[in-house]
Amino acid sequence: MLPVSAPPIINGVVVTGDDGTILHVGERDAFDLSSIEIAEGIICPGFINAHCHVELSYMQDKIAAGRGIAQFIIDLIDYRNSFPVEHANDFEALISSAGELAMTEMLANGIVGVGDISNDSYTFISKANSPLRFHTFIECFGFYPEKAEKYFEYSLSLFHKAMALHLAASVTPHAPYSVPPELFQKIFSFRHNHPPLFSYHNQESDAEASFFKNGTGGFEQVLQHFNIPSTVFFPTGKNSLQSVIDYFPQDHKVLFVHNTTADANDVATIAGQLPGAYFCFCPNANLYIEKRLPHFPLFAGYPDRICIGTDSYASNHQLSILEEIKTMQKYDPSLSTAELIRWSTLNGARFFGWDQQLGSIEPGKKPGLNLLSHVTAGYNLTENTAINKLI
What we know:
With 391 residues, this protein is of the alpha/beta class. It contains 13 helices and 13 strands.
């Protein structure tokens, strides 16, 4: 058993109440064997999916893989815009229905909490009624600096809809290339987020770095495709992270998502300049879009500030944290199962402020319980490792 907040317990026993509350954790020798149910594998807390786009679930298998982030953005927006305006109600119903199926899948895959990106309100009611715990990141973006107020006002309208449904929510920047300085300022000047958490797509590709350094790369194609004049963007001579890091507030938690091309200096800059910064990996989405992964050893010095996410069905074949950590251990066998489970449970719970109930197996908590079967004798994951949601 991996309580996460304490060392692993070989032949561990967890006692729960009828409502899933943890009553006791101990070793098997302290119990009458006839009074316990024995399972083979690893028992761990429910997973926290720190980064997901539930509202993109209707795009499952619609976006071609391996074409890079710039083409991915073009394909995603083109597909979304392919739905006729006169069928808006059908479009909303499609997004809502696909989102509900995605939530059902995440529950079956042992996920108990989700940091979810929203660009509209189509999934809000479903999230408000879901047994999953959600924080909704209302993503604010737009290319034209002179329209910053308009972009922000739209995000603010979504924020108020979320508040009306008692959803935890915050207005957050999308990515460096889609948020001009004027919009960064408006987002970070807003002090009514509940709670004050931010999420940010960071350094997903070399094209992003080239765009900021000298205005070249795949993002030129994005601007041209959507008839956006190149004058809306001015290269900084630095990579995207170093170009925008000073906009971020030092007194709030920020989840830097993807970090695919971050180098040692970038990681140190984030961790040093922003005490509340966490890093989130979505490895299967990185492979789907860019066919590459972050260099995980660069983050070894920050084991308490790493989370795991699935991203969306637009860039993944499933919404499973187990599949994400299996991929990570496959590509970097030095990552221990205990470490990966901590990243995908307690760290995420602490980032979102859910750790009083979720993230670790401790008396008084209701974290959910998962059983991971088909692991090696050394407790490493395998291609056959499967999940059984116990509670």
